[in-house]
Amino acid sequence: MRINGVAIEDTFAEAFTMRAARIVITGKNAKWAREAALDLTGFATSVIGCKCEAGIERPIPESETPDGRPGLSVLFFTMDKESLPQRLVERLGQTVLTCPTTSCFDGLAAAPDRLPVGKALRVFGDGFQASKVVGGRRYWRLPVMEGEFLIDETFGMQKAVGGGNFLILAEDGDAALSAAEAAVAAMEGLPGVILPFPGGVVRSGSKVGSRRYKNMIATTNDAFSPTLRAITKTALPEGVNSVLEIVLDGLDAPAIEAAMRAGIPAACRPGVRGITAGNYGGKLGPHHFHLRKIMGEG
Amino acid sequence: MDLTLRAALDGPLDASCIAADRFAALGERDIAALPVRHDGRAGTLGDFFAIRGERKPRVRVIGQLERADGIGTGMAGGELVIEGNVGRDLGLAMAGGTIDAHGNAGENAGGAAPGTPRGVTGGEIVIRGSVAEGVGSSMRRGMVVVMGDAGRGTGQRMIAGTVVVFGTIAGGAGRFLKRGSIIGVRDIERPATFRYACTYRPPHLRVLFLYLRRQYALPVAEMHVTGRYHRYSGDLAELGRGEILQWAGE
After folding, report:
1. C-alpha–C-alpha distance, residues B173 and B186, integer Å
2. C-alpha pair distances (Å), A75 with each of A24, A53, A184, A235
3. From CA A260, how far away is CA B87, in angstroms rounded?
4. Can you give the residue ranges of every domain in chain A?
5. SS (H, E, C) A191-245
6. How far is CA A207 from CA A165, A222, A279, B215, in A?
7. Is-same-fold flag (A2-14+161-294; A19-158)?
8. What string of pLDDT tens digits covers the 250 residues of chain B?
């Protein structure tokens, strides 16, 4: 299969079941909502080192937010349901609570699993906090120096999918980066998906474990590292000198498939030799995203 | 389900059997047989109302009901719509559901039964006209919204919950209030035991007012949604953890 002359390998991305929350942050204007969202999602690229993965899903227009102000939705992922509330309490407490003018709302109101995040953060009010129930939802009002911080008492949690991916195999670094940027632009703002890495792109894809260091849970993906082509069992086709990876986390598999369907053709540009995907032989992750099937072959 | 008043009431009617959650489980005959007292004499609901429909959690009550008291007493769910003015004790000690009154309401709307410490413990009451004395008295939880004026003693002895008034609020508002919020956008006669705290834009009011627009199609002005409010803490003769929020301008 080829798209714009770029070979789409007959392989699949292997992804894992995660737990996710959707946070809606509003502010006096889009700038302040974004400031909070950027801090909230900072250092949240991979569960390997950050304990969570997070990213901005999309801007939310004033007509869709609970308080009629401009906002952003953020998706938050952890590997297990126990750690999700912990990460949310830590991060919301240090980033959104501290950010001027912002309020914080649950974006998965229909999810039956509820995380008592606002309920935990309320104690910052030192007993001066107050709650209000509006339309069956309880909000906490925390007195702060600016005025008041408003947050939902509970946030919904649902099963999700983390680790969808595809790799861009390019002739050189510039071509790889241009293709990755185009793919990210095509996927940005799609509902239910985030790209947790810097600018949506990973240059240091990893393999599980280490050939040499016992304490390392992930090390460089030497099979796709061009500088190691001559001394390792390479997976690189002839003419490929740079590889970049796009990693996707989504609220469900169809959301990831839709994003890959948008991103892969955008990455098929001049200078790109092929598109492939990362997997572990299909034995670790229950979600398999077959590139050719997603792109409509057969 | 519709309940239509057959004829004008010439004396007070205790209509406290009218509640949406109760009617949801009853047939027309059962509803018609519910006991009422009219001017001190025993009767049945069917003597005064034509009943159409059954076993529905959404009930419309139609007619000039100024002398029908206690509608929605103890209601715990469902939806009650009142097409007209209504008497005293609307939604007395209500625990859940919604009451939407398209007219004025009498005394003690969303209040407590005499001698009891708690009034409304949940649910929402919207009064699209004005209301007499004591709206929201001893409320523990829930919300009462008044689009017109509110009489004396609004939110007195509130334990928590919210009373919103878009008209004027007469004297004695919030007296002996422990927690809870009284929100007004026009003149409020505050007790001296409320103390000014600050003027700010309460973030929860945006959520509340937009909810009222969305849920009940209430004409909440944008300047009230986005505006600044004076916050008065009180009642300082009590716990002092409640508030009166009074609109202060855009």
Report:
1. 13
2. 9, 8, 16, 33
3. 62
4. 2-14+161-294, 19-158
5. CCEECCCHHHCECCCEEECCCCCCCCCEEECHHHCHHHCCCCCCCCCCCCCEEEE
6. 13, 8, 9, 52
7. yes
8. 999 999 999 999 999 999 999 999 999 999 999 999 999 999 999 999 999 998 989 999 999 999 999 999 999 999 999 999 999 999 999 999 999 999 999 999 999 999 999 999 999 999 999 999 999 999 999 999 999 999 999 999 999 999 999 999 999 999 999 999 999 999 999 999 999 999 999 999 999 999 999 999 999 999 999 999 999 999 999 999 999 999 999 9
Structural domain count, chain B? 1
Phi then psi dihedrals of residue B147, to 5 deg: -80, -25
Q: Which residues pair with residue A6 across a beta bridge?
A: A3
Instruction: Report the SS3 class of residue A283.
Output: coil
Interface contact A145, partner B, CB < 8 A? no
Domain residues for the domain of B213 are 2-249
A98/A146 Cα distance (integer angstroms): 10
ipTM score of complex: 0.94
> Does A69 reach chain B within 8 Å, measured CB to CB?
yes
- pTM across the whole model: 0.94
Inform me whether the C-beta atom of residue A80 falls under 8 Å from chain B C-beta atoms: no
As assigned by CATH, the class of the A19-158 domain is alpha beta
Distance CA B103, CA B128 (A): 5
CA distance B213 to chain A (A): 12
- Residue A103 Ramachandran class (φ > 0 left, ψ -120 to 50 alpha, else beta): beta
Of B142, B143, B210, the CB nearest to A68: B210
| Angle, in degrees to the nearest 10, between helices A253-267 and A173-187 | 140
- Cα–Cα dist B160/B155, whole Å: 9
The CATH code of domain A2-14+161-294 reads 3.30.70.520
CB pairs A-B closer than 8 Å:
47
Query: In this structure, how many other beta carbons lie within 10 angstroms of the beta carbon of residue A159?
Result: 13
Q: Which residue of A has its CA nearest to B202?
A: A148
Structure tokens, A139 = 């909000």
d(CA A207, CA B60): 66
Place of tokens 């689009």: B147
